[in-house]
Amino acid sequence: MHIEYGADLAPLNTFRVPARASALLRLRSPGEARDLLRRPALLARPVLVMGGGSNLLFTADWEGLVVLPQMLDREIIETQGDTVTVAGGAGESWDGFVRWTLGLGLGGLENLALIPGTLGAAPIQNIGAYGVELRDSLLWVETLDLRGGRAERFYNADCGFAYRDSVFKREPGRRLITRVAFRLSRKPELELDYGEIREELAAGKIADPTAAQVAAAVSAIRRRKLPDPAQIGNAGSFFRNPVVPEAQAARLREEHPAMPQFAAYGGVKIPAGWLIEACGWKGRRSGDAGVHAGHALVLVNHGRATGSQIASLAQQIQASVADRFGITLEPEVRIV
Ligand SMILES: Cc1cc2nc3c(=O)[nH]c(=O)nc-3n(C[C@H](O)[C@H](O)[C@H](O)COP(=O)(O)OP(=O)(O)OC[C@H]3O[C@@H](n4cnc5c(N)ncnc54)[C@H](O)[C@@H]3O)c2cc1C
After folding, report:
1. Left (φ > 0), alpha (ψ -120 to 50) or beta: where does 166 sit?
2. Whether residue 246 is found in the same domain as residue 307
3. Residues near 86 by Cβ (< 8 Å), separated by ≥ 6?
4. Candidates 124, 134, 159, 176: which one to mutate for ligand 1, based on the most atoms within 8 Å of Cβ?
5. Prediction pTM value
6. How far apart are CA 175 and CA 286, in angstroms?
7. By alpha-carbon position, which residue is closest to atom 39 of ligand 1?
8. If you count DSSP H runs as helices and E runs as strands, how many of each does the chain have, helices first?
């Protein structure tokens, strides 16, 4: 087991903000994960499990242990007619795993193509995009309880999935996700009615798409719309889209007739990006911390911003949205 002390976390987070960890440990096998449990002194300090660092903002050094699960493997577990169960290790790249399933002729994950990060992190916030969420096809999640030491399997219904949420997210540092399985289909029902998927397919003259063609369309739209963390530091959507009760939504509609609203999650979803743009933040910057010029929901690091500067910008945005619309924006990104 190799422990790196005073590890540099800047290259390991997609905001590229400076931070260090007192200690960092890469876990390359389930055996190494079990070894960690035999080192209580390491686990006595705060533990941060990290994947690709694409949903984290460091505002300070991590005074404790950072664990990077890097278990790699992909496996077909079972085939029953057109339904195929597949699983993979926590360290697999999410997009690489999606592409592997598409290569097997399996559908279910196509709308989630090109989301950054690892397979092990995907259940944490029940990743979602283009009308599909991870929970729609997830079968189970295997975890290691870092406090009790037990290996546990959570089936879909036990994961407490909700909009960008799960039981794992609600107890950060408690469980390390080691393996994730999905039930996919050779004859998937494709979700084409979200965003610009149909337009993208029509532009490519594709009338009856395969899952792989939907993934290619989604990827092309994402490349056009979202800033690439390799070019400019960011963590995708910084805030969750607020979901408000119908009565509040009706009042807001009256005051702001142009406000987009969608029935979702038992309430009314309002695009956070619209609220931020309406408050005049799109494209603004404070030093190197900024709001992306093309997508108001994405905060960016123009070069040398610290995590605290980005967090402070986020607080100013929250205050102005609360002031103008009476809505509290909640970060989707985990601020540490
Ligand atoms: C350009 C861009 C676009 C994005 N688009 C989307 C999108 O469309 N939809 C969406 O939902 N998200 C999106 N995201 C956010 C992000 O990609 C996802 O949340 C992703 O799942 C994070 O994976 P990660 O490996 O980088 O996790 P990290 O950022 O490293 O960690 C995120 C959280 O998961 C925990 N964690 C990580 N791995 C494990 C593990 N193995 N066991 C236990 N806990 C763990 C961490 O402690 C942390 O709380 C986007 C991000 C970027 C940069």
Report:
1. beta
2. yes
3. 74, 75, 76, 77, 101, 104, 106, 181, 182, 184
4. 124
5. 0.96
6. 37
7. 121
8. 9, 20
> For residue 8, what are the CA distances in angstroms to 114, 120, 249, 336?
26, 22, 45, 15
User: Using one digit for the tens of pLDDT, what is the confidence trace for 91-140?
Assistant: 999 999 999 999 999 999 999 999 999 999 999 999 999 999 999 999 99
Which atom of ligand 1 lies closest to the CA of 112? 8
User: Residues 277, 331: one domain?
Assistant: yes
Q: Which atom of ligand 1 is nearest to the CA of 173?
A: 47
Q: Which domain holds residue 52?
A: 3-69
- Looking at the fold, whether 104 and 179 belong to one and the same domain comes out as yes
Query: Which residues, listed in sequence order, are joined to residue 57 by a DSSP beta bridge?
Result: 335
* Distance from C-alpha of 116 to C-alpha of 236, rounded to nearest angstrom: 9
Tokens of 156: 């879909």
Q: Which two tokens stand for residue 82?
A: 């057109």
The letter for the amino acid at 298 is V
